[in-house]
Design goal:
mainly alpha, Cytochrome Bc1 Complex, Chain D, domain 2, 2 domains, globular
Length: 232
């Protein structure tokens, strides 16, 4: 009987420790700082010369509404998605290339631009952009590719294992907050370039997108990129 009681005491003690340990450990770890959109806006608009950070607005436009097709519009994008992309441009310690690279696997200018940004900076900028209204919207330009683009967007290419783009990016290209970016109104040439980078493996920060883009022809990519840009 005494042995049984002893075992019960030991087991109870272990369970008590288990129930308190996570709480005690969590209390010792500072929670991540909440993103500050005001600080993010200052960095986006003005940069920080003392730290070698250039103003994002110089390339991506006021409030994230770009007027340059090579530079995507970022206004209204989910802040979780934007923060992840900024992190993916950064070169990890010991790595030769960042997860997001450009043509031929070379780092893009964004790798240099984010080098001095802290994780807090990235979250702040991302939240600022997520709160900006969308003013400048690109449009589709190839009438002869509308039917093909619509087919891929709505139904995919089942014979090649390509799912409907709408299943992740929304029927109207609005995206899904925290997961998938908005593509409606984005520059078609930018979308096309990113799909090509996914296909080649140079943009190596989404396995599903690599597999999807790799199953599409150049014409498929151009058609669906143009169609997405014209969605509203």
């Amino acid at each position: 009987m005494m042995r049984v009681l002893s075992r019960m005491v030991v087991v109870s003690g272990l369970m008590l420790c288990a129930s308190f340990s996570p709480t005690s450990f969590a209390a010792d770890v500072a929670p991540p700082a909440k993103p500050d959109a005001t600080k993010g806006g200052q960095l986006y608009d003005q940069g920080d010369a003392a730290r070698g950070i250039i103003a994002c607005a110089s390339c991506h436009g006021a409030g994230g509404n770009s007027t340059i097709p090579a530079n995507p519009s970022l206004a209204g994008m989910p802040h979780e998605y934007l923060a992840k992309q900024l992190r993916d441009f950064k070169l990890p310690e010991g790595a030769k290339v960042p997860p997001r690279s450009g043509p031929d696997g070379n780092p893009t200018i964004m790798t240099a631009n984010v080098a001095a940004l802290t994780p807090e900076d990235m979250n702040n900028i991302a939240l600022h952009l997520a709160q900006q209204p969308i003013k400048e919207k690109a449009t589709a330009g190839y009438k002869d590719l509308v039917d093909q683009g619509r087919k891929i967007w709505r139904g995919g290419l089942p014979d090649r294992g390509v799912p409907a783009c709408a299943s992740c990016h929304g029927a109207s290209g609005e995206g899904i907050p925290g997961q998938y970016p908005r593509l409606s109104g984005q520059f078609p040439t930018y979308i096309e370039e990113q799909l090509k980078l996914f296909s080649a493996g140079y943009r190596n920060n989404s396995v599903p997108m690599h597999e999807i883009a790799n199953r599409m022809s150049a014409t498929d990519i151009k058609a669906v990129s143009d169609y997405a840009a014209g969605l509203r």
